[in-house]
């Protein structure tokens, strides 16, 4: 019984995170379904963050991917008017912070 509860909680966390990221993509003028497509979602994520598409290749290099990912995440958060604390939230509690970003009042600004 405990295992079933754990599975239900885990699936709920996954669905909430995907729904929040979907709304974030839509706010940025990108298709929400792109969240579900591996590699393409990373490309769109970089596009929203204002980074060049070739950075996707950097995400395949161990250790470099961590640095590039954090730099892109900082730019991503800035596009929605958020700062460093929010970036930390997106890193450590994405199932909380993506829905806040997606369903909250944050607005995407391409020039930020």
How does this model look, in words?
The model has no long low-confidence stretch (mean pLDDT 95). This protein has 112 residues and is mostly helical. 67% of the residues lie in helices and 0% in strands. The chain contains six helices and no strands. Helix 1 (2-27) packs parallel to helix 6 (94-103). The termini are far apart. The protein has one domain (2-103). The protein is globular and about 50 Å long.
Write the layout of secondary structure elements.
Elements (H helix, E strand, L loop, with lengths): L1 H26 L12 H10 L5 H4 L5 H16 L4 H9 L1 H10 L9
Helix pairs in contact: 1-6, 2-4, 4-5, 5-6
**What characteristic shape results from the CA principal axes?**
globular
Number of domains: 1
Series of H and E elements: HHHHHH
**Beta strand count:** 0
Q: List unreliable stretches of 5+ residues.
A: none
Radius of gyration of CA atoms, rounded to a whole number: 14 Å
Class based on secondary structure composition and strand pairing: mainly alpha
Largest sheet: none
Spatial gap, N to C terminus: 48 Å
Query: What is the chains' assembly state?
Result: single chain
Portion of residues within helices: 55-70%
**Mean of residue pLDDT values:** 95
The fraction of residues assigned to DSSP E strands is under 5%
The helix tally amounts to 6
Task: Give a short synopsis of this structure.
This protein has 112 residues and is mainly α.
